[in-house]
Amino acid sequence: MCGLAGFLGPSVGSHLVDIMLHHLQHRGPDARGQFNSDNIALGHQRLSIIAPTNGKQPFYCSNTRLAMVCNGEIFNHRALRHDLAAKKYCFQTDSDCEVILHLYAEYGIQGFTQLEGQFAFALWDERSQKLVLARDRHGILPLFFQDQRANGGGVSFASEIKSILAVNSCAPEANLAAIKQIFTFWSPLEGETPFKNIQQVKPGHALLIQGNKTEELCYWDWSFPDNHQFINNEKEALEGLQSLLTESVSSRLQADVPVASLLSGGLDSSSVIAIARDLGHKPDTYSITFSDSKEHDESSFQAQLLERYPGRHTVTDFKSSSIVNYLEETLWHTEMPLLRMAPGPIRQLSSSINEDGLKVALTGEGADEVLGGYDLFKETKIRQFWAKQPSSALRPKLLQRLYPYLNGWLTSSDAYLQSFFKQGLDQPNHPLFSHLPRWSTTQTCQQFFSEEMRDATKDHDPLAELTNRLPEAFQDWHWFNKAQYLEAHTLLSTYILPSQSDRMLMANSVEGRYPFLNHKLIEFCNQLHPKLKMRGLNEKWLLKQLMATRLPPEIINRPKQPYRAPDAAAFAHPRHHDWLNELLSPSNLLDCGYFDPTKVGFLLKKLQNKQIRSQKDNMALVGIITTQLWHRAFIQDYNKRFR
Q1: Rounded to whole angstroms, how far apart are CA atoms 10 and 551?
Q2: Contact 301, 558 (CB under 8 A)
Q3: Where is 74: in which H helix or E strand?
């Protein structure tokens, strides 16, 4: 994993890319390289994992006159290299990423469909004067760009936004529509950023930039069969999952450096570690614990996995109030406001991995989207059942079986549970049916917006925008698959992978690898009938069957508990009060313009009186604090940080 940057257009020079690369050194501290031509400059910061001695970038092929910089890993590079060598292509390095250059020369954009991996790259076709910016299928790795050709400028692009901001001619502005999206989905929609006029390449897409034109091409997306074409055979499903998941873990263990593994104590990370052990690998493991918050701590399950598979293990423990100490640095890397405090501890965990001299870590991310692990799938099933008899008093009581890890949720009144889950119940065929309760609840945080913010965004409806982006076949899919698609294109690609994974790991030069996000595995699992993913209300049923003899029963049978960290509780300690009072003072809130000082003042009093208990208030508080800090770091202090 690395960092890339570049510029296409007039007045390009090596000094420009040097400035951009300076802000990406944490992504690739091992080497720096540049390619410069008449109107293009490509830069690369390298984290050496494959071919550490001769894999330096940029790549350039004089025969095809193609140049490229890449951030990522191509796990099937050996097979691709063999095929391309047979077609007389010559390789100058042992790097896995060099295959992309020759794939493009042979097949054009269609060659990208042969890549198995996680990647973001910029490729310059000197003959046609065409720039290609492309991103992997799931959005594991980031790639941002700013197009100023309409104003006589050029196109700048980079792995992180701060690298683009460093060469801006003026201070950035907030993208208020994207801020509203964050206060709906927890993140901007795919392709959007909270910065005006800065976008990102969408997952599974390539941008072709030539002259004054830009063409956007989608080369891969999630898809599902209709109800008559599912794989229903359990034996076939188990054999397929076993083969593809083992192959995926094996390929992601490829490295010329040691590979570690993150251990949450849940089914997904434990499965990855167990399969790695079956393959003869014994990765060092790293875990987060919360010793003062039983609600968030999973150490007992981590211990059970380690009893089955003992090895070198490192724990990073957090006290709730200590998470605030790292918040500003966390936001510097996420480059966007957050509604959850979960990313910060992962950044500190990656520091421990880095201190041990390791550069690569396997994770279990993606399993919940691919195999139906989130409680969202269970609640949608109950709500679909309830919608058939909306007046039933018994059907909504099934909802009380959900979320045992949330304090107070099970004791909530029937009236509260029904008011939450009943949202959208009269529209069971609505394309966003599965997510309406969650997103509607998150949208209530917008009540803290200032009048100016409301006026500026009144014509933007995030839910309508997302609905308009859905593929034509979406409405014909099974409700379970619709929910999977929405999770993959909102929570996974725009929040979990960027904010909790890549950005937090790469802040300390650690590459995350994701066996469950092998596109072949996803394509197979998408053919499975939903009953093989969720049996009754038993989530990830097929994966549990596969791992039943390889993991402790306590891990197999535990309820799904997503990784979380203390939110409002992190700010409740009196030592944070003065800092919060200053950050959220009426004058600071008015200067930024996003929030209503009076309403925020009431919320702040609730925090200091320890009266914040609802999920809505937790999200609102974290969102307001992080938006203010984000604005201060990137907009208010722009000249101080970038000039």
Answers
A1: 58
A2: yes
A3: strand 66-74
- Backbone φ and ψ for 163, nearest 5 degrees, come out as -65, -35
- Tell me the angle at which helices 343-355 and 327-334 cross, rounded to the nearest 10 degrees: 90
CA–CA gap between residue 110 and residue 93 (Å, rounded): 23
Under a CB-based contact definition with an 8 Å cutoff, are residues 194 and 336 in contact? yes
214 and 227: one domain?
Answer: no
Question: Average per-residue pLDDT in the chain?
Answer: 94
pLDDT above 90: residue 325: yes
From first CA to last CA, the distance across the chain in angstroms is: 28
Domain with residue 129: its CATH number is 3.60.20.10
Rg (C-alpha) for the chain, rounded Å, is 24
* 197 and 244 housed in the same domain: no
In a domain, 185, yes or no: yes
DSSP 142-187: --EEEE-GGGT--EEEESSHHHHHTT-SS---B-HHHHHHHHHHSS
Tell me 633's DSSP state: I
312: which 2 tokens? 């070198």
| Dihedral over Cα of 252, 538, 476, 420: its sign | negative
Does a structural domain hold residue 468?
A: no
Annotate 358-425 with DSSP letters as a single string. --EEE--TTHHHHHT-SHHHHHHHHHHHHHTSTT-SSGGGGGGGS-TTSTTTTTS-HHHHHHHHTTTT
Same domain flag for 238 and 195: no
The 3-class secondary structure across 329-364, one letter per residue, is HHHHHHCCCCCCCCHHHHHHHHHHHHHCCCCEEECC
248 and 185: one domain?
no
Average pLDDT over residues 126-133: 97
Task: Please identify, among 186, 218, 250, the residue that sits at the C-terminal boundary of a domain.
Answer: 218
Question: One-letter amino acid identity for 257?
Answer: V
Report which DSSP code applies to 488: I
Last residue of a domain, one of 218, 245, 279: 218
- What SS3 state is found at 310? coil
Q: What DSSP designation does 451 have?
A: H
Q: What is the mean pLDDT of residues 547-564?
A: 93
Quote the CA–CA distance of 260 and 248 in Å, as a whole number: 16
Q: Are 385 and 518 members of one domain?
A: yes
Closest CA to 338 of 604, 626, 614, 631: 626
Q: Is 294 helix (H, G, I), strand (E, B) or coil?
A: coil
Q: For residue 595, is it within any domain?
A: no
Strands 511-513 and 360-362: parallel
Structurally, the chain folds into a number of domains equal to 2
Rounded average pLDDT over 596-606? 97
The CATH number of whichever domain residue 282 belongs to comes to 3.40.50.620
Residue spans of alpha helices (H) in 470-584: 479-487, 503-506, 519-525, 530-533, 541-547, 553-557, 568-571, 577-583
* CA nearest to 498, candidates 517, 487, 512: 512
Token couple for 35: 């390619």
CA distance 351 to 337: 22
* Domain boundaries, position 367: 223-431+475-563
Residue 235 domain-assigned (yes or no): yes
The whole-number pLDDT of residue 83 equals 96
